[in-house]
Design brief:
This protein is of the alpha/beta class and 365 residues long. It is built from 12 helices and 16 strands. Helix 10 packs across helix 11.
Length: 365
Amino acid sequence: MPGAVNLSAMAGNRAPTIYDVARSAGVAASTVSRALTRPGRVSRGTVARIETAAAELGYRTNPLARALPTGRTSMLALIVTDVTDPATAEMLRGAQEAAGEAGYLTVVADAAGRPEALDRALSTVDGAVLAAPHTPDDDLSALAASRPVVLLDRMLSGLPCVVPDIPDGMRRVVEHLAALGHDLVTYVAGPADAWADGMHRRALRQAGCEYGVQSRRIGPFPATVAGGLAAAGELLQRPTTAVIAYDDQIAIGLIRALTARGILVPQEISVTGFGNVPAAGIVTPGLTTVASPLRLMGAVGVRHLLGLIARPGPEAGSAGVAGSPGPVTLPVTLVTRGSTAHRRRNRGVPMSGGGTYLPTFIPAT
């Protein structure tokens, strides 16, 4: 009898099955399967009855089981190098929100983990978004051969990606520092294998030519607060008027190290970063930085990926990425805070730890 449920079958807190739903709705189990995976093949009235029965019983579909007739799991992998990195965390948040809005579950996987574990994770998903700046190019290409893949904050020929407008961001930083009188800046490099680091250096050279600002590089350093702490010693061996750090983490570590050594920021050294992570507005002084749309980057990456997954036909290639559009470049902005100031030429300023630091600055107005 439709609607009748065998309560004894539900005893013992057993999770309801598709057969329980079928008995409750008065239909065959195969009809329940079609209604939950391909509702267009079942009448609206029957779908409504089945959905009501499933809700009353607390039945939840298994995405892996649902994948058997459809070839889709409605699951995406978010592959990252360091989930504790603030920029990565923001991108993950945006990616998970966009996936949830589209009815997809997400699985976070460690790009630095064992290859077999990563392969196992990919076998259960429809595609992957990668925020993994240190993963070798060959490994990324191999991943893309098995599943649709979208890169975040990184470019690789032949693969779709979502990136911030680094050249424009660097131009804004250099323009800002040049307007404050800085004609020589030090770039504190991030990891040597990071795509963004190479982009920063090229963009700095170009912007320096445009605004008459010379630059030099120290590093590489890890993209962490500890990396910024380590960079301070090398920086102070060659005094500078301003610093452009690879990212906010390095910039924050640098501010901490300089302050501990009695060097005032920005009165003695101006410091800038990239990213605009939440801590950039909390550190003292507040960090002047290029704001990348980190959460939007994650969301756009997922939407781009879902478009690749939905693309029918052989033109998508075996992994759904061949012939995909070029990079999606998102705009950036410069957030000016207290870590930058006007340069004052030919005057020494007493350091809080003793002695005099040259060259120096007057505060921006």
